[in-house]
Structure formats: C-alpha cells, structure tokens
Write a structure and sequence with these properties.
Blueprint lengths: L19 E4 L5 H12 L3 E6 L9 E5 L5 H15 L4 E4 L14 H11 L1 H17 L2 E6 L12 H21 L4 E8 L19 H16 L5 H12 L6 E4 L1 H12 L2 H11 L3
Parallel strand pairs: 1-2, 1-4, 2-3, 4-5, 5-6, 6-7
C-alpha cells in the first residue's frame, strides 16, 4: 500500500499514522468509488460534497464548493485540523455541459470552467504548500478521454479537460523536485449519472447531428463499466512511488487515443464524423 502506515518523524504514540486522502466530488459515482477504494487500501479518507452528507463506510464527509475560494480554504483547513496534513489530493469534482459550442452561452461556459478547471487550480494550490514543506504528496486529477480526443457536441467540456491536461503536465515538472507526484486518469465512458446532466439550450439547426452524436455517446454509456474501475486505477496510482503521468481507462479510450496518434488529421476528422454519425 505504498507509504501507508509509514511513521512520520515526530509522531507520537496513539497518533493515527495512516496516509490522508482528500477526494473532491465524493458523494456519488466516480468520486464515491475512489473514496471507497482508498479506504479499502488503508488510507484515512475525507470526501467532499457541497453539503457534508454521509458517504460510504470509512469516508469522513467535508463540505466543499470548488468554485468558492473561501470554501476551498475552509475545507483544507478542516482536514488539516482533523488529520494534521494531506498526503493525497484527488481532483474529481466536475460536470458535463453537452451541446454545440454555439448553443452554450459564455456564462455557461465560464461556470463549467470555474468547476472543471479553476476548481482543480484552487484545490491544488491549497494543498501544495504543505506537500512541498513535507517533500511528499500525490495529486491525482480525473481528466477524461475527452481531454485527449474531443467528442462532437461536448465542446466546452472537451476544452476544460484539455486545459486540465496541460495544467497537470506542467505542474508535474514544477513540483517533482519537491517530492510531489502528479498524475492524470483518463477514462472513456463510465456508467454513472454523468450523462444525465443538463444540456445547453437547443438550436434547431443542430438538432439532427446533435441527436445523432449524443445518441452514440449514450450507446458507449450503456456498454460502459462502472466507476469501480476508476477507483481501482486511482488506488494503484496512489500506491506507486513513481506513477505515470497519464493512465487511460476503458478500451475505447485506448483505441481512440491510438487512432488520433496514428492517422493523418484529415482521416481522423472523417473517422470521427463517421463514428458519431454526423
């Protein structure tokens, strides 16, 4: 279990010596599966939601709105007061805004980025000072296949995940000298309530192609594995001393990423439009 159970210098008898993990968006779906897996691996796990609701066995709830800096600061301070430090941050909170790029308003796109991208920025900046000081820590961010291969009619979501990918790859270079490990998990379709989230306003001009593309996405969801596969992947990464930057999950994630690397751009466009029936 990696460094779980390692006694820190200055620890006193009776102190809880488990590694401490903070998982955002842990009340359901992928976040709940990650929190449960980390508990199973012997970590002390704090799970967040907008209200500190009861979560799975062994998960300690904390209130958090990743879009609010004061809430982020209060959350990290609360965990610090209860556990002393944070060894692992899992950036999982996020949501989907489906629809054509033109259909989403700038305010809707800004709100999406405030959670999916700036939420990651806020949480990462909040835990980094203590990780750097202790010269230890792991930051795992749940990205998406959409951060490598954009899906039609998910434009703003794709863009938020592309941004997260660039941020975390940069951060990995910057904090490696301080002993802080940074990695990304890139799932394809996972069977969760994710796809049921609201869409942008619908314009008639896009109805046929949007319906076809989102229908293909629903087909992927029907065949998708459950969120436990993401939880297991995060558990493995947290246990590694030198985790890889990127971990692709699900067959389509591996296949589509490979095809994007292999095929010329024009052929990639044709394959994408054919595959999404647009």
């Amino acid at each position: 279990m990696g460094n779980a159970g390692v006694v820190e210098k200055g620890a006193v008898m009776g102190e809880d010596k488990r590694r401490v993990a903070l998982v955002t968006g842990a009340s359901s779906g992928i976040g709940a599966a990650i929190a449960a897996e980390l508990v199973r691996r012997g970590l002390r796990v704090f799970g967040t939601s907008r209200k500190a609701v009861e979560m799975g066995e062994g998960v300690e709830p904390v209130a958090l709105d990743v879009g609010d800096q004061a809430s982020v600061d209060a959350c990290v301070a609360d965990v610090g007061a209860r556990a002393g430090h944070i060894d692992v941050l899992v950036n999982n909170a996020g949501y989907l805004l489906a629809g054509a790029v033109e259909e989403a308003t700038p305010d809707e796109a800004r709100a999406l980025f405030d959670t999916n991208y700036f939420g990651v920025v806020r949480m990462t900046r909040a835990v980094l000072p203590q990780m750097r000081a202790r010269r230890a820590g792991t930051i795992v961010t749940i990205s998406s296949l959409a951060g490598r291969v954009p899906a039609p009619f998910w434009g703003h979501y794709n863009a938020s995940k592309f941004a997260v990918e660039g941020l975390m790859e940069t951060l990995r270079h910057e904090v490696a000298p301080f002993g802080v490990r940074v990695c990304l998990v890139e799932p394809g379709a996972i069977k969760t309530p994710f796809y049921a989230q609201p869409h942008a306003r619908e314009m008639a001009e896009y109805d046929v192609r949007r319906g076809a593309a989102l229908g293909v996405m629903r087909g992927f969801e029907r065949r998708a594995p459950g969120p436990a596969v993401v939880g297991a992947a995060v558990g493995r990464l947290v246990a590694k001393r030198n985790p890889p930057l990127r971990t692709l999950l699900t067959p389509e994630a591996r296949i589509f990423t490979f095809l994007r690397w292999l095929l010329p751009s024009r052929l990639n466009e044709r394959v994408t439009r054919f595959g999404f029936q647009i």
